[in-house]
Amino acid sequence: xxxxxxxxxxxxxxxxxxxxxxxxxxxxxxxxxxxxxxxxxxxxxxxxxxxxxxxxxxxxxxxxxxxxxxxxxxxxxxxxxxxxxxxxxxxxxxxxxxxxxxxxxxxx
Amino acid sequence: xxxxxxxxxxxxxxxxxxxxxxxxxxxxxxxxxxxxxxxxxxxxxxxxxxxxxxxxxxxxxxxxxxxxxxxxxxxxxxxxxxxxxxxxxxxxxxxxxxxxxxxxxxxxxxxxxxxxxxxxxxxxxxxxxxxxxxxxxxxxxx
Lengths: 108, 142
Description:
The complex is a heterodimer. Chain A is mostly helical. Chain A contains 2 helices and 1 strand.
């Protein structure tokens, strides 16, 4: 269809290719564009910009959720490791190289 | 499970004061870190994302919770201590920037792009540096 932005394979200046934002910007400034194409181009540019903004805040939200999980896992891990620490402490006190394992003896 | 072992230990030894000398890690004792302490560790990384911190300045940048990011800076200007705190809130309609003096605005354009980049870098470095986890998979690093 002439002037339709659904056809993304046409290379002529009279058709619109909106799969690339850089091309979109150049085409909007192109004085050879028919009025319909310029209006459609601006509408789609608005949608593209809005979509970029939404993607931006979705990305930031996703990061925040992952960090929340890491903090929770870290705190849960610390609780579970009390048992592991106790075992390691008993092992370390019976080992001649306890001070080489990164542990120091307290109470001495 | 840890509380069960603690109870078992007390039952066996009777008195914690008589327990054998305990070995504690030298550099980072294995103790439970509060969420606040974890955020402080994260903020040490977050503050450096924006370059070196000038002498006399204090900067904090961290994720307060899943929906809130905080930027804080303090510095001396004309002999007076100045401070600025900005809160970025994640809403369904965008990122709301909340500044002192009840100023609210949704960020867009370059500021939004910069914040997205900063939070992505924050996540990468905090995942590896604080939590020792692969940022892609969330799994513990070897």
